[in-house]
Design a protein that fits this description.
This protein is of the alpha+beta class and 279 residues long. The protein has eleven helices and seven strands.
Length: 279
């Protein structure tokens, strides 16, 4: 792979596949780890009850899940990791949920043994909690059988995972994350705008989203070369334009107070364009 191809692959992962994951506020990954907690409770209720019995609350679980998500499961053995990355690029961010649930399902027995030891008084609660966290952190490294991992993740055990369900859970958990009060005012504005636009995203296009420094405007670009400026408070489109090449918008950089932008499109060669201020 050339340096340019590697760059565009990284850009696609950060901007298209996992938007908000590497934002300074970490709104994307914090939201999705909370979504995973909800999915464990629904898809694997027995595992969820074991985790609760071991004293692992949502905060403790999210701390472990963040290490899985941010590194895209690089703790997996090489063959398993590469196959998971292929699935991630093919199916999108729901792959993170499916692989996580598969890891938990495949390791239900050790969790059950630990929960039983606590119930029978063979181990103290705090010690069990520490051992459970270590067990969770080590789960990816022990997923040697890539066929079993992928079959569990994509087979009938976990059932369907429609986009509508994930959008609903993400919006719900984003409010939970924002309510923690850990984000400043600008990040809150940006995060709300990003989530609003993601919930309206067209099924057939990929969008990149960039927020102005003060959070008042958010810019989006898609596969067809459409660029829109949105009001982050109302979610309404205040300006729309089409790039000169009518090709996919690969990158956007907002300047000024969010009233102008410079972008890159591929058609198929890379071209750069600059807008005049809108306001």
């Amino acid at each position: 792979m050339s340096e340019e191809d590697a760059f565009w692959l990284l850009a696609a992962i950060v901007e298209d596949v996992l938007p908000g994951f590497y934002h300074p506020s970490l709104i994307g990954v914090n939201t999705d780890t909370n979504v995973l907690c909800d999915l464990v409770a629904v898809k694997l209720p027995d595992v969820w009850h074991m985790l609760q019995a071991l004293g692992l609350d949502r905060q403790a679980l999210c701390a472990v899940f963040v290490s899985w998500f941010m590194c895209l499961f690089n703790q997996l053995p090489r063959e398993s990791m590469l196959r998971v990355w292929d699935l991630l690029l093919f199916e999108g961010s729901k792959t993170l949920f499916r692989i996580s649930l598969a890891l938990l399902a495949l390791n239900a027995k050790p969790l059950q043994d630990l929960a039983t030891a606590v119930k029978e008084g063979m181990i103290h609660g705090e010690d069990a909690q520490s051992e459970a966290i270590v067990l969770l952190r080590d789960m990816p490294a022990h997923a040697i059988d890539s066929n079993l991992l992928l079959l569990t993740a994509t087979g009938g055990l976990l059932g369907s995972m429609p986009k509508e369900l994930l959008v609903k859970l993400r919006l719900h958990n984003a409010r939970r994350v924002l309510a923690d009060g850990l984000l400043d005012e600008v990040f809150v504005k940006q995060s709300r705008a990003l989530l609003l636009l993601r919930s309206r995203d067209d099924h057939n296009t990929r969008k990149i989203l960039v927020v102005s420094s003060h959070g008042a405007f958010i810019w989006s670009g898609d596969d067809a070369g459409n660029v829109c400026v949105w009001d982050s408070q109302t979610g309404t489109c205040v300006k729309r334009l089409v790039t000169p090449s009518h090709r996919r918008v690969c990158s956007l950089a907002v300047w000024g107070e969010g009233t102008g932008a410079r972008g890159i499109t591929k058609s198929p060669t890379t071209t750069t364009w600059t807008t005049t201020p809108f306001f």
